[in-house]
């Protein structure tokens, strides 16, 4: 495999949308609109074989979402997460977050479980969690912006994990 990572381009739309549609049907990701400025892609010999989206929850918190590898267990997802962390750090964000049904996968990449989750906030008030205020505010934004209106809210059990970007930011400086 000759993997290369890059920012998505408008021409990647059909490939990225096909990857997302496959995973939506499988129930592993929620639908997400394609915006080339918000996606990274992985290519193998010119073919798109993976994707990852970045969505700002605030100036300091960016979600890495829609991590999809066309071929599992080839390092595509890990490479995309590393590239997403690097890109998030260059924006000045201080935290990267993921909402996932595979928390162990992200824990192995330095993410830590949070005691709070936007889907829980969308259902009603949550006791003050023991986490940085910046994350608490961003979780509130996500709850209001998308979780409250999500048709999957009642059954959502996505884990929220976060990772500080300080180390990644210093490596880029």
Question: What do you see in this structure?
Answer:
With 173 residues, the chain is of the alpha+beta class. It has a single domain, classed as 3-Layer(aba) Sandwich (Aminopeptidase). It has helices spanning 13-26, 76-90, 103-107, 118-123, 133-147, 166-172, and strands at residues 3-7, 39-44, 47-56, 61-69, 95-100, 112-113, 159-164. The protein has a seven-stranded mixed β-sheet with strand order 1-2-3-4-5-7-6, with helices on both faces. It is globular and about 45 Å long.
Outline the secondary-structure elements.
Blueprint: E1 3-7, H1 13-26, E2 39-44, E3 47-56, E4 61-69, H2 76-90, E5 95-100, H3 103-107, E6 112-113, H4 118-123, H5 133-147, E7 159-164, H6 166-172
Parallel strand pairs: 4-5
Antiparallel strand pairs: 1-2, 2-3, 3-4, 5-7, 6-7
Helix pairs in contact: 2-6
Question: Order of strands in the sheet with the most strands?
Answer: 1-2-3-4-5-7-6
> Cα distance, first to last residue?
30 Å
- The CATH class label is Alpha Beta
Q: How many domains?
A: 1
The average pLDDT value, as a whole number, equals: 82
How many β-strand stretches?
7
Q: Estimate percent helicity.
A: 25-40%
Question: How can the largest sheet be summarized?
Answer: 7 strands, mixed
**H/E element sequence:** EHEEEHEHEHHEH
Count of separate DSSP helical elements: 6
């Amino acid at each position: 495999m000759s993997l290369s990572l890059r920012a998505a381009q408008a021409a990647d739309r059909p490939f990225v949308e096909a990857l997302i549609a496959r995973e939506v049907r499988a129930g592993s990701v929620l639908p997400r609109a394609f915006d080339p400025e918000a996606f990274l892609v992985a290519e193998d010999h010119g073919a798109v074989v993976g994707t990852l989206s970045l969505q700002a929850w605030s100036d300091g918190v960016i979600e890495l979402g829609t991590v999809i590898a066309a071929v599992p267990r080839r390092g595509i997802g890990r490479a995309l997460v590393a590239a997403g962390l690097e890109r998030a750090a260059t924006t000045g964000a201080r935290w990267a977050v993921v909402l996932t049904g595979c928390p162990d996968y992200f824990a192995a990449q330095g993410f830590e479980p949070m005691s709070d989750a936007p889907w829980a906030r969308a259902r009603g008030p949550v006791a003050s969690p023991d986490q940085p205020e910046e994350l608490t505010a961003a979780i509130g934004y996500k709850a209001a912006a998308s979780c409250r209106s999500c048709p999957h809210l009642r059954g959502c059990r996505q884990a929220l994990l976060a990772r500080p970007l300080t180390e990644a930011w210093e490596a880029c400086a």
